[in-house]
Design a protein that fits this description.
It is a single chain. By secondary structure, the protein is an alpha+beta fold. It is built from four helices and 20 strands. The protein has a five-stranded mixed beta sheet, with no helix packed on it. Strands 11, 12, 13 and 18 form a four-stranded antiparallel beta sheet that branches. Strands 16-15-19-20 form a four-stranded antiparallel beta sheet, with no helix packed on it. The longest helix has 33 residues. The termini are far apart.
């Protein structure tokens, strides 16, 4: 009897509906948590990535007072410099650079994690007349600047110079380095020269007291720029002979490149070959020779002083006596020698040689 196969029992299937709903709910919870974190961190990020802003507790104050400078929207953990500058407006910036600011009474501040800060700033008179601003700028990293209008009570005011003179200077003749090295430079003193050039004003406005930048580069390194201000005025269409000092560090030698920049434009470049300070090399060579020789002489003197003397060595050094003492000593020595010779055991009075005894005769002589 064979068993007929019947209908198979239905296999239990895993319900997918509830689990799929669970996964969707977990995903929604995760997205909600991420959105909450984003909302919590978004204000700080927007403050750091936004435009820098500065607010002042007072818009006007006199010398000797104090104001509070607050800011937001700056880069987190950025070092800022706070200065009161004259001859400046937010539209034109600080005319003349930091020469128009009260640098001695400036303050430094570091922003927090959200890019905000608050710092008290003493009110002092800048070297230039008002209009004045509170100049806030980053010291390191990406450059960011903000100028807030401020009035120093009692400080003189004057109109801003007319624009148009900046960036209109051009070099009309070949630049050259004048000057020579001194004897001190041969021994490592800083080499110094004068960069001489003739510039012309191609603009329609005069250029007064232009501020140049001189950069010195050695090898593949980038130039290091230093400000040099020339006192004078270049009239429109006129020209002027300018001399600017150039100085390197102590002991510098090799091939250098001197560059002159006005504004954002490099006006001239001049090579400078600096000789090696051979005096320093000579000094070290002499030092390496003299010091070992001196140490050797001192060591030999010490050894000669402390070494043991052999027996009887003191007899080699006798003090010099007067001639009378020497004569008396010689006489005593002769007497002692005669006495000693007379009493020697191998000589008797009969056998001792004498000049008075007759000489023996030989055969044939009477």
């Amino acid at each position: 009897m064979t068993r007929q196969p019947g209908p198979e029992a239905p296999r239990p299937t895993r319900p997918t509906g509830p689990l799929s709903l669970t996964a969707v709910l977990a995903l929604l919870v995760l997205l909600s948590a991420l959105s909450v974190l984003f909302v919590l961190s978004a204000p700080g990020a927007r403050a750091a990535d936004g435009d820098p802003a500065v607010s002042l507790s007072k818009k006007e104050a006199g010398k000797g007072g104090e104001i509070t400078v607050s800011g937001s929207g700056w880069r987190p953990d950025a070092l800022l410099m706070l200065l009161i500058c004259g001859q400046s407006t937010p539209q034109r910036g600080v005319i003349g650079g930091t020469n128009s600011c009260a640098n001695a009474d400036g303050r430094a501040v570091t922003t927090d994690e959200k890019g905000a800060f608050s710092k008290k700033l003493p009110v002092t008179e800048p070297p230039k007349p008002c209009p004045c601003v509170v100049h806030v700028a980053t010291v390191t990293g990406e450059q960011a600047v903000f100028d807030a209008v401020f009035t120093v009570a009692g400080h003189p005011a004057a109109d801003l110079p007319r624009p148009g003179g900046d960036g209109k200077l051009a070099v009309l003749a070949t630049t050259r380095l004048e000057g020579a090295s001194s004897l001190l430079t041969w021994f490592g003193a800083p080499p110094a020269r004068r960069l001489v050039l003739t510039v012309g004003n191609l603009g329609s406005d005069p250029v007064e007291d232009p501020v140049f930048e001189i950069g010195t580069a050695h090898g593949v390194y980038a130039p290091q720029w230093e400000e040099r201000q020339w006192r004078g005025t270049v009239a429109p269409g006129g020209k002027a002979r300018i001399e600017l000092p150039v100085e390197l560090s102590a002991g510098a030698h090799g091939d250098y490149q001197v560059s002159l920049r006005y504004g954002d434009k490099v006006l001239a470049e001049q090579p400078w070959g600096v000789g090696r300070p051979w005096g320093v090399t000579l000094f070290w060579v002499l030092l390496c020779l003299v010091v070992p020789a001196a140490v050797f002489r001192i060591g030999m003197a010490v050894v000669d002083k402390v070494r043991p003397r052999p027996a009887g060595a003191h007899r080699l050094r006798r003090p010099t006596a007067p001639p009378a003492v020497i004569a008396k000593t010689n006489t005593n020595t002769t007497t002692n020698a005669t006495t000693t010779t007379a009493v020697l055991p191998w000589f008797t009075p009969d056998s001792a040689p004498s000049e008075n005894r007759p000489r023996p005769t030989t055969k044939g002589q009477a």
